[in-house]
User: Fold this.
Amino acid sequence: MADIKTIGVLTSGGDAPGMNAAIRAVVRTGAAAGVRVIGIKRGFTGLLDKEFVDMDPERVSEIMELGGTILYTARCSKFLEAEYQQMAADNLAQSGIDGLVVIGGDGSYRGAKCLADLGVHVVGVPGTIDFDIGSTDYTIGFDTAVNTAVSAIDKITDTSTSHERCSIIEVMGRNVGYIALWCHIANGADGILIPEKDEFDEQALIDSILNNRRKGRKHHIIINAEGVGRSNRLAKRIEAATGIETRATILGYIQRGGTPTAKDRVYASTMGAYAVDLLLRGEEHRVVAYKDGKFMDFDLGEAITMKKSIEEYQFLLRGLEGRESAGRA
Ligand code: F6P
Assistant:
C-alpha cells in the first residue's frame, strides 16, 4: 500500500450525468480506507484558486440521483500554460494532497497528464457525454445523454407526424457522432449525418424522403451530429428539394442534464471506487476504463493516444430506417 493520506477529486470539462455518483464513490471509498478526501471546485480552475472543500460521507448523501456535478466544473484555458500547471502541482503539495482523481473527458486527461509529468499521483476517470475516449468502452454520462435525446426525438416525431413534416434533429458530440449513431438506431430515423463520414450523399437522402413519402410515410427524421452542424440550412435545402415542410431542432444542453440512468450510476460508482483503489495501491498516472466487459486501467500517457471509431457495422445497418405512423388515420 502506498502512503496516501489525502486524495483530491475534481470534475472538469463539460459536465455529465453520473459525475456525482463517481464523486460519491471516491469520497466513500476513501473514507472507508481512512483517507481524507478533498473536493476541488470548478476543475483545474479551482486547483489554481485553491477552492478546496473537505468531503465526508454525509456530504455526498443523496447526490447519486442528481445531474450535473456538485463540485462544479470549468474549462480552464490557463491550464495549457506550464506556469499554471506548476502552480497547480504546488497547490496540491502545499495542501497535503497526495493523490488526485480527475473526472472528465479527453481535455481533462491531457490536463491530468501535465500534472502527472510534474510528479502528481493522478488517476483519470472518463466523464463525457460524447463517448470519445479511446481507452474505454464506457464514459460517464453517455448513456443518460442518449436516453434523454432518444426520448426528446420521440416527442419531436409525434409532432412531426401530426404535421406530416420532416425534422432535422441536431444532437451533441463535439467532433464525434456516437450520440447521433445511437439516436439514429434507437429512433429508427431516416438518415444520419456525422462528422466521421464526410461523404454524406444529400441527393440520396432527398430521394429516400420522397420515396418514403410516396409509400405513405408521414414523417421523416434526420439525425445530424453537432460536428456537422448547419441544421437550419440543411432543413431549408430539404424543404426546397422535396416540397415537404422541414424544421430543425437543436437539442443542445438538455442532453447534459437530468438524473443519471442506472447504468451511469453503477458504472460511475465502480469507476470512482476503482480510481481510489489504484491510488491506495500506489499506482499513479493511470486511467480507469471499461473494456471487453471488464473494469481495468491503463497508463495515462498511453490512454491519451488510444483511438476509437464509430462501429462501421452499426453505421452501415440498412433497412431499419423509419417508423410507420401506426394508429393514425
Ligand atoms: O463535451 C461535451 C459537450 O457537451 C459537447 O458535446 C459539446 O460540443 C460541448 O461539450 C459544449 O461545450 P460548452 O459547455 O463549453 O458549450
Q: What stands out?
A: The pocket of 6-O-phosphono-beta-D-fructofuranose is lined by residues 14, 75, 105, 128-130, 172-174, 226, 256 (CB under 6 Å). The mean pLDDT is 95. The first strand starts at residue 6 and ends at 11. The chain has two domains: 6-141+260-291, 145-256+311-315.
